[in-house]
Amino acid sequence: MKYLSFIVALLLTLLVFSALNAPARELPVATSVKPQQLASDMPLTAQLDTIVLGSGCFWGAEMRYEKLPGVIDAVSGYADGTGVEPNYRAITKRSNKMNPNNHAEVVQVTFNPQQISLEALLQHYFESHDPTQLNRQGNDIGTQYRSIILSNSPEQQARAQAVMQQYQPLLTAAGYGQIATQLKPLTEFFPAEQYHQDYIAKNPNGYCPDHSTGVRFNRDAAAEVAAVDNSEMQNGKHILVIDSENYCPYCEKFKAEVANSYQGDIPMHFRYASQLKGLTVTSPTWATPTIILLEDGKEVFARQGFMSADEFYLLLGKFKLGDSEAFDVAFDEGTDQRFCKEYQIFKNTPDGVFVDKLSGAALFDTRDRFNSNSGWLSFTRPVKDAVIEKPDNRYGMRRTEIRAKVSGIHLGHVFGDGPNGQPRYCINATVLDFVPRSEAG
Q1: Measuring CA to CA, which residue among 92, 83, 53, 84 is closest to residue 71?
Q2: Residue 266: C-alpha distances to residues 50, 51, 321 (Å)
Q3: Dist CA 144 CA 98 (whole Å)
Q4: What is the H or E stretch that residue 209 is in?
């Protein structure tokens, strides 16, 4: 029995010794991983890395990092301060505006090096802001906006230094000064208040601050920002939209809700802020989108930030129509004079389509036109899905108003006294343009 007890004790000792000296196993990483990232190509045992980056206001920076393939998470926060509370109220006090010990607005980026290298991440970082500015980015001025890289190891710091040295000659060749980015070891990162996290996603009607220089690393020729010909915009009226070289949700929303359906005769152009050569643009171009109205290559009006379709077409109406009867009809729900000159022109056009004077969207077809002897253009129906109907009970009458679906402008009313019991769409000619069938397609 004593012999058996000795054997059991010996085996237990060997098992414990073996466990203590076994090679360390990879354990699941304790990090905030998005559910969509937990796929077979990104096992839980993946070795993730983090770096803390400051490039001005953290709202846009956080969003852009999150859109990079291989970035697992991006958290807005504060770092590199002493004697100042790490919260938004404290760092934005007037007394701390130029305090060298103030915290910087930064983003803690967690990434998978197997999907995006540290070098590629840092190239994006340098390209996404102006690292030559000291304690500011654009109109944001103060030590909280300083350009700073906070590394988690000497190796990471050395690699960041190498990327910075690669970027300086490119900036110098483009006419920029010396890089002012600070490179330090991280001491502590403080996550920002919850309302700052995913800020741009929570605020859908704004703009993305874009302070990039347009200078890019020499990855390959295709990555360079292409030179563009702006000569077309030197004559006549044009709509210029400042787009982002990086992902900008407000730009994508403007394209989806406004630009993609625009077919008007005032051309719309998308450019990066670095592609405005030959144009006289006086407004700041660091916010995306920025909508600029040009006439003969010179800025007439500019508006920073996302514009809804209603806002855009009201602006375009002023630009194209000015103080005219057409503008009053379109936006003040006015009415053409009976038998106005536009009616006389449009009542007997050849075969074709009447389009929205602002958006260019097809509204009515000559094949559905008839002479109602009312003094206004009359149709039995609109183009499919081209208009919307709204109750109109003004002036003590019960009517149905007709508006253009794309631009939202007032077109007229629909009545039930058309030929053979059909509707009569009574439409103002001043808000229409005519396109012959061969051109309308």
Answers
A1: 53
A2: 48, 46, 12
A3: 8
A4: strand 208-209
Residue with the larger pLDDT of the pair 251 and 245: 251
Of the listed 57, 248, 251, 426, which one is catalytic? 57
pTM over 0.70: no
* DSSP assignment letter at 323: S
Distances in whole angstroms, Cα of residue 267 to Cα of each of 154, 167, 262, 275, 400 = 53, 37, 9, 17, 33
Q: Tokens for 209, please give them.
A: 């601050």
3-state class of 303 per DSSP? strand
Q: Which residues of 396-416 are buried (b: 16+ CB within 10 A; e: fewer)?
A: eeebebbbbbbbbbbbbbbee
Residue 288 three-state SS: strand
Residue 317 burial (CB count, 10 A): 20
The first and second tokens of residue 309, run together, are 């379709």
Helix 325-332, helix 309-321: angle, nearest 10: 170
Q: Is the pLDDT of residue 46 over 80?
A: no
* 248 has catalytic annotation: no
Element (H, E) at 360: none
> In the structure, what pLDDT confidence band is assigned to residue 30 with cuts at 50, 70 and 90?
very low
Residue type, 265: D
Tally Cβ neighbours within 10 Å of residue 206.
16
Listed as own residue / partner, the contacts of 276-282 with beta carbons closer than 8 Å and 24 or more positions apart are: 276/230, 277/227, 277/228, 277/230, 278/230, 278/231, 278/233, 278/234, 279/230, 279/233, 279/234, 279/240, 281/240
